[in-house]
Amino acid sequence: MTDAVNEQRAGRAASVARKTNETDIQLAFDIDGTGISEIETDVPFLNHMLDLFTKHGQFNLNVVARGDVDIDDHHTVEDIGICLGQTIQEALGDKKGIKRYASVFVPMDEALAQVVIDLSNRPHFEYRAQYPSQQVGSFSTELVHEFLWKLALEARMTLHVIVHYGQNTHHMIEAIFKALGRALDEATSIDPRVQGVPSTKGVL
Q1: Within the chain, which residues score under 50 in pLDDT?
Q2: 3-state secondary structure of 73
Q3: pLDDT tens profile 40-84
Q4: Residue among 66, 12, 15, 58 at smallest CA distance from 42
Q5: DSSP letter at 80?
Q6: CA–CA gap between residue 5 and residue 189 (Å, rounded)
């Protein structure tokens, strides 16, 4: 790897603290990690999904979150999506040298999910998923949409998520988070052939 590429990769990490009347979150994210996650939230299913995202994206992610889960999981899930998106946006910096785009399919047994990313600085989210169950344990499947939409908004990315088919709701959501990790890893990776920002506009 050249010195120029090493310089581009250096320091692609960020952290954020967010405290509201509903949640208290500290989150740190490193794009160029090794798949290490330390996740402690009040939403066990989300912990599992974030661990998968981190491992398959080869990021490092630390999350400590407390929220008003006595009401429901909504605020905690949503605010973690906000915080993760903010750290991704900050860690990417000027986006020089990145591949920018990625499209990844991931199977999970009978389920198949596809995640397509453009690190465009134009937040947009498209979501196509029909689950056979509205709950996975105590976790509501509608919160997957809330998490992903806030992630795309705060990371300022175009994000398309499609679950092509599946029979087991857990498998379908798991395939999404694995594909999200792999797609973000690819889109954020440095391509030594790219000079500057990968846009004819000259800026992202």
Answers
A1: 1-8
A2: coil
A3: 999 999 999 999 999 999 999 999 999 999 999 999 999 999 999
A4: 66
A5: H
A6: 10
